Amino acid sequence: MGALRLPSLTLFAAAAAAAAAPPLAGRSPASSLLILRRHQRRRVPRLISKPFASISSELSTHSAAEKAHSPPPLEEEEAENDERRRRRQEGFISSRSQDFNGWYLDVIANAELADYGPVRGTMVIRPYGYAIWEAIQDYLNVKFKETGHSNMYFPQFIPYSFIEKEASHVEGFSPELALVTIGGGKELEEKLVVRPTSETIVNHMFTQWIHSHRDLPLMVNQWANVTRWEMRTKPFVRTLEFLWQEGHTAHATPEEAEKEALQMINIYEKFAYDQAAIPVITGRKSKVETFAGASRTYTIEAMMGDRKALQAGTSHNLGQNFSRAFGTQFTDESGQRQLVWQTSWAISTRFVGGIIMTHGDDTGLMLPPRIAPIQVVIVPIWKKADEKSMVLNAALSVEKELKTSGIKVKLDDSEQRTPGWKFNFWEMKGVPVRIEIGPRDVSSGTLVISRRDVPGKQGKVFGVSMESSTLIAYVKDKLDEIQSSLLQKAITFRDSNIVDVSSYSELKEAISQGKWARGPWSASDAEELKVKVETGATIRCFPFEQPNGTKKCLMTGNPAEEVAIFAKSY
Amino acid sequence: MGALRLPSLTLFAAAAAAAAAPPLAGRSPASSLLILRRHQRRRVPRLISKPFASISSELSTHSAAEKAHSPPPLEEEEAENDERRRRRQEGFISSRSQDFNGWYLDVIANAELADYGPVRGTMVIRPYGYAIWEAIQDYLNVKFKETGHSNMYFPQFIPYSFIEKEASHVEGFSPELALVTIGGGKELEEKLVVRPTSETIVNHMFTQWIHSHRDLPLMVNQWANVTRWEMRTKPFVRTLEFLWQEGHTAHATPEEAEKEALQMINIYEKFAYDQAAIPVITGRKSKVETFAGASRTYTIEAMMGDRKALQAGTSHNLGQNFSRAFGTQFTDESGQRQLVWQTSWAISTRFVGGIIMTHGDDTGLMLPPRIAPIQVVIVPIWKKADEKSMVLNAALSVEKELKTSGIKVKLDDSEQRTPGWKFNFWEMKGVPVRIEIGPRDVSSGTLVISRRDVPGKQGKVFGVSMESSTLIAYVKDKLDEIQSSLLQKAITFRDSNIVDVSSYSELKEAISQGKWARGPWSASDAEELKVKVETGATIRCFPFEQPNGTKKCLMTGNPAEEVAIFAKSY
Fold first, then answer.
1. Could you say which residues from 383 to 442 on chain A have a Cβ atom under 8 Å away from some Cβ of chain B?
2. Whether the bond into B217 is cis, omega within 30 of 0
3. Interface residue B337 vs chain A (CB under 8 A)
4. Which pLDDT score is estimated for A92?
5. Which site among B152, B220, B232, B414 would you substitute to test the A interface, given the most A Cβ atoms closer than 10 Å to its Cβ?
6. In this predicted model, what pLDDT tens digit does every residue of A121-175 receive, in sequence order?
7. pLDDT category of residue A58 using cuts at 50, 70 and 90
8. Cβ-based contacts under 8 A for chains A and B
9. Average pLDDT of chain A, as a whole number
10. A218 beta partners
């Protein structure tokens, strides 16, 4: 695998053309993203909004180099498309260690997880990527219902005036809004916000529905799309429109709201560990990083393969901030009118990006079995025509048995590709287990099993019995083993990249090495912002798990109650 | 139950105030809707767009009468809210036979299926209504996957220029578009359409993904929200934003596309009959009524309780209309470039409205067991304190047994309400089966079962054994019986309201009686439009089931190949 950056997402033939030229030394991920945008701009010129243009000029230090790779005319693009497709079919992916961002984009393109939409910053989630999102939904949906939440649906158009009602909320969201100003051919009297999140409209409705303490707790959730006009986008991680679930609850007491906010972050944490094999660190956000409108924000923070942090899910204790703004009251048992106490919590399609960036390797995607759309792929191998039906029959029967036992299995019996090509292809797609069946295997009633997470012969077991119950037990064990192994590997990686620091210079050193820094913190918001400006790192959280003993703030030397974790983040 | 119209949806306290005044003689459903809008306008004055104002004046014949019921000041609204809530808690619902529209809105409010959003024409789908939608999703999602479709997600923002590419598509949709013109605080260079449907963006992407005949068929589906700037809205039936699934497929031959379009309308038909107990009539749309951009549209048409038709699902053979507009081509086996043949098909939250309007009665909602969020409600009955624990224990054990066997059961053990109140409440919510357990039942090891669809003592069975396996079998049988019975009743109603006609005067007579007219048709589009103007009825479909023998067009007397069904519709 070369280090050549190949942003091979289907739409951007032009980007691929640029990549075919020699790589630019020291090109940062940000500038690579810029190239994609610039090319998108050329292909669909009228779609580009003014804010894009301004970013373009801000980052103009890169533009001279980029101009050297102006896009070829359409015919050449077509040819390049074919060239790129050929390479993709050969499993070409940038080196993960040398160009993490290029690797990420290549994996997304090659594994057909997503593609760019025609509007800058939007993303099409392709079936294989969407199936991962469905696995996330299936698990969480059950947990939400078990804990007493009902699904429902709020409209996505929110009157602009609603957004203005909660002071810090409007401050946080107004720069990112998409506004509908025309409906049915006429200009609207009030602009409509395409929801960036739903606290305001939820409270508007809660105010109609909640009257008495008997109406509480009110606990709902919706699976929906949301829109935030982001300037720097990246598939899954940050897109103009994304999919998420947003839970919203109202309670009679602050204690109940706090308990709910903690319960939900714990559900997210358990999902991350048990299903996605991502050893997140759970904690509380600093005041600076708290959600716009919340009293307290809990978060799960994941370490990606490039050691940047990804905020993978959040749960907010909203206090009475929104109920005060919207007058959401109830009559308590003694007949007094009280404002409700609220929470909201969300996980989005960003989590799919987290899965890719936690487990993938130079070969491509690597999926934890519990969220893999395909857990086992069967590749039949034959040379002579008379071997074919024998091998295929055995493969079909293995497929049927595994499917019946609840394993997600795919038989790749296409005749256009060689077994070797199929091996590479399904490894790149991150399928945890491969079963190979050849003529000799059929004769001996056995098959070969390969693990995606252990490369080469070391991950291969020959002579596994085809006998149904033995095979099913064996495969299920293997899947469990892979699931644990991926989590263990990620824990080891995480722990070896967190440095305990006791001074600002140690913090700066750790961050400059690309690591996370953990140290006692009781300094001001201003000092927190200074760290951000000087190092690029932010407080990811005050982790729930805290060391014992007295602590001194790494910045001020004053006593500190807690350690904080600092890191650069997505 | 009185005939008083009570549009008691939570948000519209003002509407309720107007309704408390004497009803206006001969007020049509359209004018009732107008009242809701007008009040909405008063409550959130800045939200009303200009198109609303223009409609208002078009329908100004009603405005004098309506002005007499101007909304009370806020304090009075609060009081009226309480009054309305009290009535709702007593199960007050307008008479279905005398005021079908008022009845429909009351059922939606009382059963807490939906509420109005703050923006005109938008709807909040509340948990009980959303659970019906989830039952629809659960069934169809499995069927879609069984027939080879994958879920995915396309962005909702579509460049305006895309909509213009297919001539009849732009003509059909451009009056209904919501447009985003501002993003991130800046005016956009090209307006973005909030998707009214996704054919254009789907084709834009298909063009990138489809290269060879080996890429076909491409069969995908998405569950999504869509926006159409409708002037006359009605909860579930027609709202500014609604939820749906939209399937999109591309094929190598016209025969495959036609087969797919038919397969999907058949899946919808089967769903309607088997799950929703709605005996739809399946057929082909006339040219006039065909989807904007389709070559052929298939439809399932349902007869509502007021005998108006509801188009409940459609499947379109798009031919090469969109592939031509977007250049969606593939290389066939002989190396020739060909345009793909396509389909699209959709069912929306409108179907929930169809379920309400097919099965409900004066008591409220009536849900077919297979799509009911709660299939069985258990109401424990006790008077003395010492009876309570005995009865509750028995009820809990019955609940547990039914739940374990897969029945959706709810135990209503709240102490704030009498058993009588609970009976009415859960009947209004349409729960198919009620189980009553009192002290004497517990002593004899039996319970009482009541059917929602058979009122009074006739629907009650005493002395049903509590013994687990007997009870479970009994309840499952009962649910099946109710499911069949609802379908049978709907079939009888439908068939007694379709009239075979052989002349235009017979057609007019049938339509004026509120019935559907079925007769041979081979006349022109102009004559079809004349029928619409003169009678208010449109061709709902040319049904797949056709009578034998030669036919003469009811309008022209010329030979006709097929009979068409004419009806007024939603």
1. 416
2. yes
3. no
4. 80
5. B152
6. 999 999 999 999 999 999 999 999 999 999 999 999 999 999 988 877 788 888 8
7. very low
8. 218
9. 87
10. A250
Write down the pLDDT at residue A170.
82
Is A146 at the interface with chain B, CB within 8 A?
no
Q: In sequence order, which residues have a C-beta less than 8 Å from that of residue A55 and are 6 or more positions away?
A: A34, A37, A231, A232
CA-to-CA distance for A375 and A386, rounded, in angstroms?
A: 30
Instruction: Judge contact between B124 and A153, C-beta under 8 A.
Output: yes
User: What is the pLDDT confidence band of residue A50, given thresholds at 50, 70 and 90?
Assistant: very low
Chain B environment of A49 (Cβ under 8 Å): 183-184, 186-189
CA B420 from centroid of its chain's CA atoms: 31
**Rounded Cα distance, A349 and A369, in Å:** 18
Phi, psi dihedral angles at A498 (to 5 degrees):
-110, 125
On chain A, the residues whose CB falls within 8 A of the CB of B243 are 153
Is residue A239 within 8 Å of residue A365, measured between CB atoms? no
How far apart CA A416 and CA B334 sit, in angstroms, is 16
Rounded CA gap, A344 and A202, in Å?
Answer: 10
CB contact under 8 A, A157 and B189: no
B205 and A CB contact within 8 Å: yes
B137 touches chain A (CB under 8 A): no
Nearest residue on chain B to A127, judged by CA atoms? B152
Asked whether the beta carbons of residue B156 and residue A225 sit closer than 8 angstroms, the reply is yes
Strand order in the sheet with A341-348: A150-151, A218-227, A241-251, A341-348, A309-319, A296-303, A281-284, A538-543, A562-567, A516-521, A498-500
Report the gap between the CA of B503 and the closest CA in chain A (Å).
39
pLDDT tens digits, one per residue of A12-22 = 333 333 333 33
Three-state secondary structure call for residue B202 = helix
Interface with A, mutate which of B208, B232, B243 (most A CBs under 10 A): B208
Mean pLDDT, 10 residues at a time, chain B of 570 residues: 33 33 34 30 30 29 31 36 55 89 95 96 98 98 98 97 85 90 95 97 98 97 97 95 98 98 98 98 96 95 98 98 97 97 98 98 97 98 93 97 98 94 96 97 96 95 96 98 98 98 98 98 98 98 95 97 97
Q: Which one, of B282, B278, B177, B156, lies nearest residue B225 by Cα?
A: B156
Contact A112, A104 (CB under 8 A): no
pLDDT at A1 over 60: no
Q: Which residues of chain B make contact with A224, given a CB cutoff of 8 A?
A: 225
- Closest Cβ opposite residue B189 in set A50, A131, A209: A50
Q: What is the pLDDT of residue B238?
A: 97
Q: With H, G, I as helix, E, B as strand and everything else as coil, classify residue B478.
A: helix
- Token output for A125: 């989630």
Question: What does A130-189 look like in DSSP terms, one character per residue?
Answer: HHHHHHHHHHHHHHHHHTT-EE-B--SEEEHHHHTTSHHHHHHHGGG-EEEEEETTEEEE
Q: Which of residues 342-381 of A touch B (CB under 8 A)?
A: none
pLDDT value of position B86: 58
Average pLDDT over residues A415-437: 96
Dist. CA A230–CA A245, nearest whole Å = 19
% of chain A surpassing 90 pLDDT: 80
Q: How confident is the model at residue A40 (pLDDT cuts 50, 70, 90)?
A: very low
Please give the residue of chain A at the shortest CA–CA distance from B133.
A152
Greater confidence, B76 or A531? A531
Q: Which of B44, B175, B189 sits opposite A48 (nearest CB)?
A: B189
- Report CB contact under 8 Å: B124, A10: no
Cβ of A46 within 8 Å of Cβ of B161? The answer is yes
Q: Are B154 and A117 in contact (CB under 8 A)?
A: yes
Using a 10 angstrom Cβ sphere, with 0-12 exposed, 13-18 middle and 19 or more buried, the burial of residue A22 is exposed
